[in-house]
Amino acid sequence: MPTSLSQQLAARNTLDSARLATQKSIKNPPSFIYTPRHASNVSTADLHSLAVNAWEQLAAVDSWFEDHFKDILGEQAKGTDRTGLTQEENDKLGVLLDKTLRHLGKHMLLKPAGVVLEWLVRRFR
Fold first, then answer.
1. b/e map of 9-40 (b: 16 or more CB within 10 Å)?
2. How far, in Å, CA of 54 to CA of 122, rounded?
3. Is residue 1 pLDDT above 80, yes or no?
4. What is the rounded CA–CA span in Å between residue 62 and residue 84?
5. Which DSSP letter does residue 125 get?
6. Per residue in 31-75, pLDDT tens?
7. What is the pLDDT of residue 102?
8. 60: phi > 0 → left, psi -120 to 50 → alpha, else beta; which?
9. Would you list the DSSP string of 19-42?
10. Residue 68 φ/ψ, nearest 5 degrees
């Protein structure tokens, strides 16, 4: 008979949690800035570090990025699993991602924008 704790942990385990824990499960993950072979060697933690740096570079050009760092690249964003969110939370995140993509669009010719886009695709799908 399963314990209460094991039931809670099982309920928390989502369809996407294994993918979010490591990108090694995908042999050749899709990537915007890397070749498939290189993308499979870039961990989510490494990509997060690169995206933080890129975000700071974009914030120097556009103040909108300064105000929204926590939502997109903060500690809580590293653990966000869209499959485990309620419909309302998912819709709110979708609106934020839409705004972020619109602001990134203005800067897509800059390399940092590509790195942030890579983070958004890999992290939030």
1. eeeeeeeeeebbeebeeeeebebeebeeeebb
2. 15
3. no
4. 32
5. -
6. 878 888 888 888 888 999 999 999 999 999 999 999 889 888 988
7. 94
8. alpha
9. HHH-STTSSS---SSS-HHHHTT-
10. -120, 15
For residue 84, the model assigns a pLDDT of 82
Which of 125, 122, 118 lies closest to 55 in space, CA to CA? 118
**Section 99-123 average pLDDT:** 92
Nearest to 111 by CA among 68, 73, 58: 58
Sign for the CA dihedral angle at 82, 95, 108, 64 comes to: negative
- Tell if the pTM clears 0.85, that is, is over it: no
Our CA dihedral for 27, 33, 35, 38, rounded to 10 degrees, sits at: -60
CB-count exposure of residue 63 (10 Å: 0-12, 13-18, 19+): exposed
